Amino acid sequence: MMALIEAKGLVRSFGDEQAVDEVDLVVEEGEVHALVGLNGAGKTTLMRLLLGMLRADAGTASIAGADVGGAGLSTWREVGYLVETPFFYPELTTRENVTVAGILHGLDQTALERSVTGTIDTLELGHWADRRARGLSSGNRQRLGLAAALVHDPRVLLLDEPANALDPAGVVLVRDLLRDRAARGAAILVSSHHLDQLARVADVITVMHRGRVVGGLDPTEGDLEQRLFDLVSEADERIPLEQR
Amino acid sequence: MTRALRVEWLKFQRSPVVVVSTVLMVALLPAIGLGMFSVASADVAGPLAAKVQGLLIGEGWEAYLGVISQVAAAAGFVGVGVVAAWTFGREHSDRTFPSLFALAVSRRSIASAKFVVVGIWIIALAAVVTLVAVLAGTLGGVDGSAAERGPALFRLFLVVAATGLLALSAGYAASVGRGYLPAIGAIVIVVAAAQISVLFGAGGWFPFAVPGLVAITGSQAAPALSPAQLALVPVVVLAVVWLTVDWWQRAEVV
Fold first, then answer.
1. Are B126 and B69 contacting, i.e. CB atoms less than 8 angstroms apart?
2. How far is B183 from chain A (nearest CA, A)?
3. Interface mutation vs chain A, best among B6, B19, B99, B250, most A CBs within 10 Å
């Protein structure tokens, strides 16, 4: 299996705050790798480092073997993501927004029209395809953000809380999408607070706390919530009081 | 950059800010100019007429187009500045900036495409304002033939275009300030600084004041502008473009 997402000794701080601290992480092709942790654990910062939105203070991040700092446009063409805010312009329609994402992700004109229609259908946005995005509900905006991340069928996928604002049908849809993409060889890094959902979709679960990787959870074992709190408590005991 | 241009053009033509700004400048600049010219030309007394008469340089079409040029040098900076501020600042205000990373199109191309689209709009705007000024002047009964006033027409086009291109600096302020509100503040500061620089006789060396000084060419108050002072205008425009594109390529998400 090839590692498509890799972090080695990744460090990033904001002033005195060590947001990501010596993080090592590997996501292989065909794998759904979940990141869990409390608020402020460093999950979003880690994803931003992996996407080149932030520069690391130390360590390396790579996508499909290319260092993120020097990755070319051909590397980024393989990547789809939804980190924090869904990508859409309110004055454009749903279809136009997905088209914009497809263009920016490098789809050619022939593939673009087919992919845009297919992705809108997959995310069940057909009814709202020709409506301006500013009029969409928060759940449909999230679906639109997912469509923008998936329209070019990326081999590498980073999703931060992809089920945010989605109704139960949307949550199931996302779960099925992730499993389908992984089955076709995509490497998927996903963060979520919904442990029960992650247990159904993830192959690997990594726990982050105070910027560090503090352990892993086995998705097949029960009571993930209790084991998460145990790991966090153990980590807090190891971290000196002044660093908390 | 074709991909970035396609996206930026789509966003630009759907923008209510662009539509409002275009309509206001195309309609209001000639209308204000014609109104001021009419008040100044009428044989009336009073403080307003006296004030407006002080703005007239020459007679007929030259005076009329000169007034529009003077209004455009200030109002045009605000009108185009708002559009430039929106074009660059909206990516921060609408929180789309993080989504412009990790793409098959570089952020350098995206920022360059924004400048190309707004730049073409500015040149088209200058041409349309000039044409509408001719139409309004003809319908408003300005004496003489418009064709005889070629230099004044060219000056109006040049003033609107140069003012607009200088207003691209609002795009830099919106990028660095990460939103359009800091850029609106920068526009106000630049307009005030231009006025102050002219008051102190240093306007020729302050590129943002130069279009206003070109607009009053021929009046006793207008200083003679040297080639070096005129050359500073394109230098500043190019520097703004370079600095902004460089910022976009290097910026992080905060």
1. no
2. 20
3. B99
d(CA B210, CA A239): 62
Q: Which residues of B are less than 8 Å from A54 in CB distance? A: 252-253
Angle of helix B2-13 relative to helix A94-104, nearest 10 degrees, comes to 160
Inter-chain CB proximity A85 and B7 less than 8 Å: no
Going from the C-alpha of B73 to that of each of A174, B29, B86, B98, B198, the distances in angstroms are 54, 10, 20, 36, 13
Residues in chain B closer than 8 A to A48 (CB atoms): 98, 253
pTM of the model: 0.92
Nearest-by-Cβ selection for A54 from B99, B104, B253: B253
**Structural domain span for residue B100:** 2-250
Which chain B residues are closer than 8 Å to A79 by Cβ? 102
Per-block mean pLDDT, blocks of 10 residues, chain B (254 long)? 94 94 93 84 71 75 88 93 96 95 95 97 96 89 74 92 96 95 94 91 91 82 85 96 96 92
Which whole-number Å values give the CA distances from A86 to A89, A122, A164, A188, B170, in the listed order? 10, 17, 10, 17, 27
For residues B117 and B9, is the Cβ–Cβ distance under 8 A?
yes
Q: How many CA atoms lie within 13 A of A194 on its CB side?
A: 17
A105: closest CA among A80, A70, A83, A123? Answer: A80
State how many domains chain B has: 1
What is the Cα–Cα distance from A3 to B172, expressed in whole angstroms? 39
Residue A38 burial (CB < 10 Å; 0-12/13-18/19+)? middle
